# Entry
Amino acid sequence: MPDVGLILSTSAHRPWPLPRGPWMMFQSWQKLLFVHWRVDPASLRHLVPAPLELDLHDGDAWIGVTPFLLTGLRVRMTPPMPWASRFPELNLRTYVRYAGRAGIFFFSLDAASRTAVAGARSFFRLPYRRARMGIETSEGWTRFASRRPGGVARFRAQYRPTGSVLPPAPGSREAFLTERYALFTVLRNGKVLRTDVHHAPWPLQPAEGHVDAGALALAESVPLPSGATPLLHYSDRQDTVIWPPVHGDR
# Structure
């Protein structure tokens, strides 16, 4: 079992200190692909709730898709649950700021675990959806497929790393796209919740592959740029701890 104390001891890279309260959950994210498209901020503003500010890099907004295998899911002081601790997951996201902190806003999160979807929707108030998913690795390639019931929000990808493992340089585009330590949710009454996360700097590798994300983006009315080649990065493993959600301005 990973040493959470060791994970927490590596924190100098964070943009703000670790939360004071006890962490709640551990997850390991494996065989993860970052897929990113540069977009006009005006094309996203109406999709992101007003309390949140779009976070831009050199004047551009970014749409991200991240397929990965989640393993080792457990709540603090408990072992992993055999029926709900290992499953594929797929996120569609952009980058925002609120109360001086940069973070992630999810348009959708798909997962192959009914238990995990129900728990995340009720406790973290995140837009999780159940989907049929598969992930496999052979001859250095990872193949990932997802489809929600009814055939909508389909996604397919085949990818592999192509270079050395390097953490993103501070201030770089790669750091902007990956080094995110907060997840923001806006409730119907306008209240903003922030969920803090922590992990070591991302062990990134450049990647190559083919990604078919059009149906997923269309299901959420997210505008992917037509014909644009996405930016791809790979990470083999990232061990992560997560805190309970709090008011966003705390």
